[in-house]
Input
Amino acid sequence: MSVLLLIKGVDEANHEQLTVLERKELTAQQVHAALRMEGEEELGRGSQALFWSAVSCGLTLGLSLIAQGVLHHALPDASWRPLLASLGYSLGFIVLILARQELYTSNTLTAVLPVLDSWRAEMVPNLLRVSVVVLAGNLVGAFAFASAAASTSAFSPALRETFASIGVQHAGYGIWPTFVKGIFGGWMIALMTWVMPGAHHARIWVIALVTWCLSAAEMTHVIAGSVDVLFAVLSGQVAATAYIARFLVPTFVGNTLGGMVLVAVLNHAQVVAGSSKPNTTSRARWNPGPRVHRR
Output
């Protein structure tokens, strides 16, 4: 009997220890290690797989334009309408992150971490390959959605006019304001990516709140905004040169600086300063949820 009680006591102690470990917050080193391993996976993927996943992502962000446009069109013209309409902006980001699709400023952030961690010059071309392929695929997907939405009768004329007005707004900030907005937009999306390992069951809330804030504050994102502005271009309300010079280039540069410098480099620096080597055992405790198989 005493042996059985001893075994029961050991089992209860182990169960209590496991419960404590499950509830313990991840450290900065463990978050860094989890994202770094994600980055190593990104760097190891073939260009074709990256491209088609990125194209799907560009198409998926069309959901943000649809949802935001529907809300903006349906709500009364009041001062609070942009706040509620911005909720629709989150939809595309929620879907693409849960579907594990490749998004520039998100997946490329994780791909930077292995390069920063090893400082091997031969890894830089591979990082550039991943970044260029993902960006190109995202833009192809954004153009494909905008083209289909603008050239077909899938949406009512009134709704298409609302879509175009959103694109006109994004293209009308000016080069310098768009660049600065892009820095904040890249910073927000990268921060959202950084907290994903520790978000657990609150992941959807984190995505929704951060992207809602991005939209409500009128920050810019190079891919989600391209869907909007390209729709306006294809509707004849914005010139293609204005899209490239006044939106695409300044937003791309701003997003890259905001995501890779303000988030990736600084957070990597604080982890390196606190530990000689990030903890690589965190993946066993980090559970990002069901993973969609990516070809």
User: Anything to note?
Assistant: Residues 2-10, 16-21, 277-295 have pLDDT under 50 and may be disordered. The chain has one domain: 48-280. The first helix runs from residue 2 to 23.
